[in-house]
């Protein structure tokens, strides 16, 4: 007979004692259970003891988490958390170095437990650890252990980082700035300063003023991957906390000190594989670097700015007056205006639009005489109701489009002149408008590169190409505008086809950027190897995979094949769950420096999971401390329904979490509990949600299942129809002939053959 649902069979062990095998009644108070366990070992004062899980992080059992105890769990009897905290904090005052080292090691081991952390913090444990860190009597293992214990306690979020004192932060800064320092101390000090910078603007300014950028560059150039990662984390935190102007100055200085070249050669192309955390920080650095373009993207061209008017004239002169000759020397004013308007029109500006409304700056009383003369001289170049500056008033791209055009004309003058003159010689309807194309292409690049959007807190999608050279965005534009001209000619496009050309160019750029080319030259090679004809072929191939416009007999065959193939997909999903996956823990500040591993048992009955260290190989299922029976799972939740993302709001920065989050709810005693996941990628999200749905007997409805099923159906259908190649398949089956007039054609097997 099965035991009641609230009774579990467990083992309880204690040092130098025979383990007890007991039936734990979850309805019984924990104090009564402890009393029975202590009585069995003849121990008095049961209130001085507590139960812990024997494996994993040795979490203390409380009334809140006791439902995590499952059949077969192994517990151990240990000192109560309040007494253990008192004992360890007392050990910190001991004069023996060895005793203090053992105390700190034990403190680091127990600090991840919330119950123990509450007891330590309530007894001023953070202040005592802070004193050890500030004193700095030992700059080796003791200091590293104290920093680690301090960080583990602060990660629980019970104490705000803003409460840290300025002398304490300055002391940690000293450890970062020291030259001869233990290799285990500085990564922890950098991690602490990163948390301070992200959580407290005031202390973040202190860190920024006390930690020189040159010092972080020194840490980045040390061939220690952990130190590099934490230095990069602090650097990106400082950049995120800076204003736009300060961020530009900081990045300019770092680029002058060759940080970009070092990242490209020694981090991205390092012999050691790039860690997930470093990949995320490189993504943030790339986003901040491209984000410097946002002010120009958001600023419209001011037709009354002398500098911007001169830039427009320089753009025209580079195409039509390469020798620097003045426009229409010796011509009348009307002739000069007509010639200038025609040249701007050849550049692709729409100079025939109505002019701008009068600007307040046109009031002579608000302009100096020289500025007014310059403005009137500029406006005199154009006929009435025409002005090329109007095309650049749209934001985005604003002045960024003008910057791109000027960069192209100055750094690739031959290609620029060839583009303009080649299109000027075409028929009016077949010419590719340079200015209009540049403006739209700049918008397209900003969308593809997410310029002006907030950084994702989990993404790792950086492109090595942007660290391969300076001015990478403008160089990318130079390649893209020449690609646009090439595609225009391949499509034999007219002005009416402009939007179609831009759609093809978007597809060419998006497909090539997805390949993450390591350099601009490689990007140029790959994108030029994707001409319009290849784009059409890829579109047709994808359309054939997606469309269901097939003959009814083939559709019927596909329907018959679906159950078998869905079973194959289900088998693959469960095998993937058995292999297991590393997931990242997202704390209240969305830190990602902790990993945990989860897998399905070979018999498909238990989910096994537990924490693992960064860089370690995936653990075996037997070594994982936690278990969740599949039979206890009630439901699978995804996206905004998950409890660990439900309270995070609906901002753009949380969109990626919604797309990767899923949870399973299960019975936890009388309460409902959740096991929460953040998938490392969209594919892993689909594989896990499909596998869990299969375990729960629900349909596998992910996009990945649809794609896999379509691919398998296509392959299997083609294999079945190989013998019918070039044989037309009728829309309707052939008619069944009428039955014969008699059935006297049966062969009598009893008559022997002669």
Automatic annotation (TrEMBL):
<protein>
    <submittedName>
        <fullName>Engulfment and cell motility protein 3 isoform X3</fullName>
    </submittedName>
</protein>
<dbReference type="Pfam" id="PF16457">
    <property type="entry name" value="PH_12"/>
</dbReference>
<dbReference type="InterPro" id="IPR011993">
    <property type="entry name" value="PH-like_dom_sf"/>
</dbReference>
<dbReference type="Pfam" id="PF04727">
    <property type="entry name" value="ELMO_CED12"/>
</dbReference>
<dbReference type="Pfam" id="PF11841">
    <property type="entry name" value="ELMO_ARM"/>
</dbReference>
<dbReference type="GO" id="GO:0006909">
    <property type="term" value="P:phagocytosis"/>
</dbReference>
<dbReference type="GO" id="GO:0006915">
    <property type="term" value="P:apoptotic process"/>
</dbReference>
<dbReference type="InterPro" id="IPR024574">
    <property type="entry name" value="ELMO_ARM"/>
</dbReference>
<dbReference type="InterPro" id="IPR006816">
    <property type="entry name" value="ELMO_dom"/>
</dbReference>
<keyword id="KW-0581">Phagocytosis</keyword>
<dbReference type="GO" id="GO:0017124">
    <property type="term" value="F:SH3 domain binding"/>
</dbReference>
<dbReference type="InterPro" id="IPR050868">
    <property type="entry name" value="ELMO_domain-containing"/>
</dbReference>
<comment type="function">
    <text>Involved in cytoskeletal rearrangements required for phagocytosis of apoptotic cells and cell motility. Acts in association with DOCK1 and CRK. Was initially proposed to be required in complex with DOCK1 to activate Rac Rho small GTPases. May enhance the guanine nucleotide exchange factor (GEF) activity of DOCK1.</text>
</comment>
<feature type="domain" description="ELMO">
    <location>
        <begin position="307"/>
        <end position="513"/>
    </location>
</feature>
<dbReference type="InterPro" id="IPR001849">
    <property type="entry name" value="PH_domain"/>
</dbReference>
<dbReference type="GO" id="GO:0048870">
    <property type="term" value="P:cell motility"/>
</dbReference>
<keyword id="KW-0053">Apoptosis</keyword>
<dbReference type="InterPro" id="IPR016024">
    <property type="entry name" value="ARM-type_fold"/>
</dbReference>
<dbReference type="GO" id="GO:0007015">
    <property type="term" value="P:actin filament organization"/>
</dbReference>
<keyword id="KW-0729">SH3-binding</keyword>
<dbReference type="InterPro" id="IPR011989">
    <property type="entry name" value="ARM-like"/>
</dbReference>
